[in-house]
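Progress note, sequence design subtask.
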């Protein structure tokens, strides 16, 4: 999807495919080579990595100016601090906020509930909502009465990785619901034997929500678009510096 999107908008992309058995040192060496290549404005390490490799170590090695995924600890650190701006914001959270903005959903002063606390979506999207003056609650696997909390939300961002966990009856009428989950569930009627569903029961929730994203075709394309936007911003920044 990312390769295809790059081709469509005229961004040159290429892959470095390494074997699963690659050593951490060799992977880091590869990242360093891309860091010093002036023709490259964005580096994306496709996660998850094989178990023998330390993910944080590898992400830390990506040049801050080329971290178009926004996962470098320094970028995430700046995202979590008041009055600081990261060079790049993680793509899926950035896409979620863009969907809210473009749909005219006001965030300031609203109650937002984020379902899930992953480094990739849950935590950064919570911080972005906070920066926009929402009152944010994070619901996770140890939260008691998640249903009661979600029912009060003006904005729900579901990113727990649990198929159809959020029921229609949990949604406040008129709420904005962004479903980040992509889960494969068995479906013998499909040629593949499965179908993709989100973390929200779309059928039920769409009857009550004011706005809702489908799965597939909702947040996924936005994530790819934000990756391209981050790459463009990185290239522009580099150009301005060299001028």
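Output:
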């Amino acid at each position: 999807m990312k390769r295809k999107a790059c081709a469509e908008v005229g961004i040159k992309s290429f892959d470095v495919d390494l074997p699963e058995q690659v050593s951490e040192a060799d992977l880091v060496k590869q990242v360093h080579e891309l860091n010093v290549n002036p023709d490259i404005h964005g580096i994306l390490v496709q996660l998850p990595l094989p178990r023998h490799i330390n993910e944080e170590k590898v992400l830390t090695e990506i040049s801050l100016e080329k971290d178009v995924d926004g996962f470098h600890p320094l970028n995430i650190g700046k995202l979590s601090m008041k009055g600081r701006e990261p060079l790049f914001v993680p793509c899926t959270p950035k896409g979620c906020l863009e969907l809210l903005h473009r749909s005219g959903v006001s965030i300031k002063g609203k109650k937002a509930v984020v379902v899930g606390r992953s480094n990739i979506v849950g935590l950064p999207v919570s911080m972005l909502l906070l920066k926009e003056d929402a009152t944010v609650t994070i619901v996770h696997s140890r939260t008691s009465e998640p249903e009661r909390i979600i029912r009060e939300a003006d904005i729900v961002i579901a990113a727990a990785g649990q198929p159809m966990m959020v029921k229609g009856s949990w949604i406040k009428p008129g709420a904005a619901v962004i479903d980040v989950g992509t889960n494969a569930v068995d479906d013998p009627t499909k040629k593949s034997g499965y179908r993709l569903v989100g973390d929200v029961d779309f059928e039920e929730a769409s009857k009550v929500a004011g706005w809702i994203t489908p799965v597939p075709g909702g947040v996924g394309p936005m994530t790819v678009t934000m990756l391209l936007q981050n790459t463009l911003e990185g290239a522009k920044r580099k150009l301005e510096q060299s001028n």
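The beta strands are 111-115, 135-139, 155-158, 176-179, 183-186, 194-197, 211-212. Work on this subtask will continue into the next period as scheduled.
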